[in-house]
Structure formats: C-alpha cells, structure tokens
Design brief:
This protein has helices at about 25-35, 50-55, 85-95, 135-145, 160-165, 185-190, 225-235, and strands at about 5-10, 40-45, 60-70, 75-80, 110-115, 120, 150, 175-180, 200, 215-220, 240. The protein has about 240 residues and is of the alpha/beta class. It has a single domain (about 5-240), classed as TIM Barrel. Strands 9-8-7-4-3-2-1-10-11 form a nine-stranded mixed beta sheet. Helix 6 (about 185-190) links the parallel strand 8 (about 175-180) and strand 9. The longest helix is centred in the middle third of the chain and has 13 residues, at about 85-95. The chain binds zinc ion (2 copies). One zinc ion binds near residues 68 and 153.
C-alpha cells in the first residue's frame, strides 16, 4: 500500500557555520514533528558528522544521512546516502580537499554534538569552502558511494547551478533538482520548463529552527526509506512526487 509522506531533504545543523547554534538534533526533530514531516535529511556543508546523534533520538521520523557539497565551481549539490557508512566514505574524499585549519574563527562555529546537544568537538576544516572536484566529478563521487545527487536551490543566484553556470550541463547526471521555498511550483513551471525531464523537489534549506518545513515535498511511498525515495524520483511502480 502506497501512502503520502511529507519530506524535507535539506536541513543544516549547528555543524554548518552559517546555521544557528540551537540547530541541535533534538530541537530539529521536535520541530520536524510539529511540521508533520515524516522523512528528513541532515545535510551540513561538506560533512555528515552530526548524523549519528539523530539516530539515537529519531522516533517516528526517518532521518537520512547527507551533505551539501560545494563543488570547485562553487555550486551546491545535495548528496543523500542509504547508510551512514556510505556517507562517511564520501565524506572522507571531500575532507581530503579541505585542509585542517586549527583555531580559525570558523572552527568555533562548527559544532559536532551528541544526542543531548552537547559539544563533542569542533570541526577544524572550513566546511563551506569548495572542494577540488568539479560538478561532474562530485556527482560521480556521490553515485559511486550509492547516493542520490540533487542540484541545490536551482532558483538561487548564489551557489545555485543556473545562477553560477547559466544552465544545467547535460553531461551531469543529477537524480533531481531542488527548488527553494521562494519559488512555488506554478512559477517554477514557467522558469524551469526546459528541465522538466528531471524530478523536482522542494525543501526548506533550514539554517534556523523556524525554517524547518517552510517548504517540503509530498511523496507517494510504500515506506519511509532511501530506497523508496529513489523509486519515487524514478516514478517506479506508482511511487511518485506529488506536487502541491
Ligand atoms: Zn546551498
Ligand atoms: Zn543548504
């Protein structure tokens, strides 16, 4: 039996230097529950280190491990993975391009926390920096580790693929495109009609608690899982995105 699920696949935590420090796992989950979200993804800049704290807490909400990778062109790409282990393998490659810079100001704004929201350690890499891999290589890296590659906020000039490159290159194999809360579906259809061959998602890109679920996507799935989301993006066996 298929049923609709409310999905927000782009949420930052206190590990992202640009996110509020109260973006802790407990507060994010409680807000997600209030907003009736059944599936969320934790997508910090270039890192998946705050994901384990969610696993200790998630009750009734499916949480997927992810990253928002900043490519060499300074284009943001969401990477979602079936397992934390696969995400860690991809993170290892990403971290190779981000040197440790101890005690820089940014370090103190990048907190790895436990399920109680207590600081475990500061992350010493500048997580918002671009990695050395270009867009195509980044998408290949994500796929190599079993993940889904989604072009982030394609309607945003800064770090959005169209704003940065002018178009979505045909040789980059995205699984979906993400549109921000600022562009509702009717407007998106006018603006991005030439990219209708790819599935579209809306997510919150929340950096503050109040932003969680400000935009989300309804999906028809059998159960709340990475595999079912993959099927919905492909439109397999009745699984699909329901635009609302
Ligand atoms: Zn972004
Ligand atoms: Zn983001």
């Amino acid at each position: 039996m298929l049923r609709p699920y409310r999905v927000d696949l782009h949420i930052h935590t206190c590990l992202s230097p640009c996110a509020d420090i109260d973006m802790t796992p407990k507060r994010i989950l409680s807000r997600a529950q209030e907003r009736d979200l059944q599936i969320i993804a934790v997508t910090d800049h270039n890192s998946v280190e705050n994901f384990p704290a969610f696993l200790d807490l998630a009750d009734g909400i499916t949480v997927l491990p992810g990253m928002e990778i900043n490519t060499a062109e300074e284009v943001h790409v969401l990477a979602l993975f079936p397992t934390y282990e696969q995400a860690l393998q991809a993170q290892k490659v990403v971290y190779d391009d981000l040197p440790v810079q101890k005690n820089s100001r940014m370090t103190f704004e990048q907190m790895v926390v436990n399920a109680q929201g207590q600081l475990v350690h500061f992350q010493d890499r500048h997580l918002i920096d671009p990695i050395k891999k270009d867009l195509k290589e980044t998408v290949e890296l994500i796929h190599y580790h079993g993940g889904l590659a989604i072009a982030s906020h394609i309607d945003r000039d800064l770090y959005g693929i169209i704003g940065t490159l002018g178009r979505i290159p045909e040789d980059v194999a995205f699984d979906a495109l993400e549109i921000s809360y600022q562009t509702p579906p009717e407007e998106a259809k006018k603006l991005f009609n030439i990219y209708r061959h790819l599935p579209w998602l809306w997510s919150s890109d929340a950096h503050q608690i109040s932003q969680i679920g400000r935009s989300s996507t309804a999906m028809l799935l059998k159960e709340p899982s990475f595999e079912e989301i993959t099927r919905a993006l492909k439109g397999e066996n009745g699984r699909k995105i329901v635009l609302d």
